[in-house]
Design brief:
Keywords: DNA-binding, Transcription, Transcription regulation. The chain is of the alpha+beta class. Helices cover 43% and strands 21% of the residues. The chain has 11 helices and 11 strands.
């Protein structure tokens, strides 16, 4: 089992909105935070992106072939030059261009820059959002982007230019692919930055295997002792390694994973609460209700009603 793939499938992309941007001379637009994540890919020309993250808001130059991700959908501006004052984006114009499959035209004169912009949302009932663990900006420069990512961006561009039946589904899946490709590249170049978060597990074979066991059998009555025994290591070794690379204990991670699985089933199925409780390792409905309320601030039955 691929733990990352499993986590991404549970917290999958929803509601992708994408648009082409054609920039001429002297343009700058700002975007409020209105999505879980935003990404841009530059096909020709250059642009400057200035994030509003409350941290380092230095303008970032985007060159042809660059892909940049704002994992938390931070407010930002994008412009033809670094110091131009942006105006709020005309969202009606952007929506019209998107629906028509036409580019959103910015600035004056001949087109100098072609951009692809996309925003998306995670599944709201899932608490483990892998991309929330990334730094505020992930910038993959053209010289470091592999051909697979280039190919996926081209497919996304074609789908935006020529929307057809089930285009929304295709956009969601293509953005899923782009995000995985970005994540692979970031993990390979910045492994130390993942330490102390869930992503840190991917660099430690022991912790990854522990997660695999829990993902494969969420209903098994795991304890740290039984998990360590399955992995033929000591309890203290597993606890220390798990805490070091993920920032939490094996038990805390297991509870979070179980509650995410349960939340999806409560929303998406008519299975009884008892059935769902058993499927994630609780033989007592009372114990499941208590654990679910502790993590979601409401009991399962109320949660089910509120998400439908």
């Amino acid at each position: 089992m691929d733990v990352l793939a499993d986590a991404l499938s549970v917290a999958g992309v929803r509601g992708t909105v994408a648009v082409r941007i054609d920039g001429g001379d002297d343009w700058a637009v700002s975007w409020a935070r209105n999505a879980d994540a935003v990404l841009y890919a530059v096909t020709t020309g250059t642009a400057w992106l200035t994030p509003d993250t409350g941290q380092d808001d230095t303008p970032v130059e985007l060159l042809p072939g660059d892909v940049i991700l704002l994992p938390t959908g931070a407010a930002h501006s994008i412009a033809s030059d670094a110091h131009r004052t942006p105006a709020p984006c005309d969202t009606a114009l952007a929506d019209h261009a998107r629906r028509a499959g036409a580019p959103m035209r910015l600035g004056s004169g001949d087109t100098r820059t072609h951009l692809l912009g996309a925003s998306y949302r995670h599944d709201r009932v899932v608490s483990l959002h892998v991309f929330d663990l990334l730094p505020p900006i992930v910038h993959i420069r053209a010289g470091r982007v592999n051909s697979a990512l280039d190919d996926t961006v081209r497919l996304l561009t074609r789908e935006i230019c020529d929307p057809q039946i089930a285009t929304t589904v295709v956009l969601d899946r293509l953005v899923d692919v782009i995000l995985v490709q970005l994540l692979r590249r970031w993990l390979s170049t910045c492994p130390d930055l993942a330490r102390g978060s869930w992503l840190g597990a991917l660099a430690d074979p022991l912790v990854t295997e522990a997660m695999v066991r829990m993902h494969q059998q969420p209903a098994r009555p795991w304890t740290t002792e039984t998990l360590a025994r399955d992995l033929t290591v000591s309890r203290s070794t597993l606890t220390r390694r798990f805490q070091d690379v993920t920032g939490q204990s094996p038990g805390a991670y297991l509870t979070r994973w179980r509650m995410d699985l349960a939340a999806r089933r409560l929303r998406d199925t008519d299975d009884s609460i008892e059935t769902i409780a058993r499927s994630v390792g609780y033989t007592s409905v009372y114990a499941f209700n208590r654990a679910f309320r502790r993590t979601r601030s409401q009991p399962p039955a109320r949660f089910r009603l509120s998400t439908r």
